[in-house]
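Schema walk-through. Below, the input block comes first and the output block second. Nothing else is stored per chain. Lengths vary across the set, and this one has 346 residues.
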Amino acid sequence: MIRTLATAWHGTYLLEDGRTVRSARAPRDPAALADRSALRSAGSTTPEEEELLASRGAERWTTSDRRLVRTGVAYDPRAPRAPATEEPQALQRTALLLRAERALAEAWDPSVHLEETVRVLTDVDRAANLLGERLASWATRDRPELEGEDHLAVARALLAPPTASAFAPEDPSVNAVRTDLAELLVRLSEVRASAEQALRSSVPTRAPNLSQLLGPELAARLVAQAGGLDRLAVLPASTVQVLGAERAFFEHLRGRAPPPRHGLLFLHPTVQSAPRPQRGKLARALAAKAAIASRLDRAGAPLDRTIAEAYERRRAAVRASRPAGATRPRGRRRSLAPLDRASGDR
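--- output ---
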């Protein structure tokens, strides 16, 4: 007679003609039940299954659980399931909630706060640019000397002691609105400075190797673009190289553009200042070292200075291979601006 091995949350059962011949009941402890649920999800056997399997001998057993096939039990999708139980469903519910709490704790990535700080920088820049344009347009209506000044300088000039102007707003309440807008713009600049300082102090602690290689701000942007340090640590170097250039990459997949040579890594000073023909090589070398650094940081390894040194040697080799007569292209050097600026077509 062929017997069937069936498992449920409340235990493991050996069935014959639909009757329970032998059973091994799971403990009635939520923590133990959560452990067994995690074992089953991972494809492992539970202690109750191992207990019954130890007494199998040469008998031929079947199961409808593919997980048990590796133990020598034959798979039969039509094999009967475990019998129902009168155990309270509240016990199963408590065990599942406990397992979910454990899974959330294991999946927690503290680098999420770095991601949010980077997004703060991006959002603050967008808001400051929008409000700054409005304030500059408004201020030059009666302060023509502010024409051409940057937005923050305009805001501070409006907050300075008032000067005589034949065109000043006659309604004090209207002037108060403009003053409030200037104060808001100054406050946004202070928030941005605070966020930058937070990244400079936090990133070297959370990701020392990546921070040493890329600098705190660029390292934080790369972590945010990847979706966390855990995610960045499993990405290949070829993907790290084009992080931030997703739009250009998809245009390439559609056949509308060449493949991007770099994404956020273009913001690294050594890539940004290099001659155009060498930027792709430097970005590739930098991405390879960034992939190694992120894996070390994910594993909690201490600072390894050889990573940055190896990149510098590669950079020197690339610069030495510069063709004779090649000149560096002129142009303004791009600063560490909002994240969306680095995600353009490159």
